Automatic annotation (TrEMBL):
This is mRNA 3'-end-processing protein. Residues 93-130 have a biased composition (Low complexity). It comes from the Eukaryota. Residues 89-138 are annotated as: Disordered. It comes from Rhizopus microsporus.
């Protein structure tokens, strides 16, 4: 049977007992706060989850509760989620190896870039190479820009004062 929309929204239903939908108590829908169950919730009374008070089991605090999970009193849990873990020896060795590999690759990359620049003979290829080697956030010089509307260098097409190039029929 579906839940009554009016009862869930307003807390009461004008049909009362004759309503053909379920009247579910909003407090029963609220989940129990896992942080409060462990001992402390940083949100306090403003927490959106339910704070259920339980008496602390004295047997559990002293070391052992014979009732176990069937105990009506609370057994505080202290296993809070770990925010940061110290790196293990294996992880440290891996990070050192990657740093060494990067240091070895840097001179090789510089040599490759020099060879590529020597091999380039065409100015268009040099412009493309410069375009790819630029750090992000930098722009081309206006001398290197060619307007696609008029074909002249020195400005972008959105700043072009001339019209489109008229192509002659072949």
């Amino acid at each position: 049977m579906p839940e009554c929309w009016f009862y869930s929204k307003y807390g009461e239903c004008c049909n009362g007992d004759e309503c053909m939908y379920l009247h579910i108590d909003p407090e029963s829908k609220q989940k129990e706060c896992p942080w409060y169950a462990r001992g402390f919730c940083k949100h306090g009374p403003n927490c959106r989850n339910k704070h259920v008070r339980k008496l602390v089991c004295q047997n559990y605090l002293t070391g052992f509760c014979p009732d176990g999970l069937n105990c009506p009193n609370g057994h505080p849990k202290y296993e809070l989620p770990v925010m940061y873990t110290l790196p293990t020896e294996v992880e440290q060795q891996k990070s050192q190896q990657t740093q060494q590999q990067q240091q070895q690759q840097q001179p090789q990359q510089q040599q490759q870039q020099q060879q590529q620049s020597q091999q380039l003979h065409h100015p268009q290829q040099q412009q493309q190479q410069q375009h790819y080697n630029r750090p992000p956030g930098t722009f081309r010089r206006l001398e290197d820009v060619t307007c696609f509307k008029c074909g002249q260098q020195g400005h972008y097409a959105n700043r072009c004062t001339q019209g489109r190039i008229r192509q002659q029929p072949i």
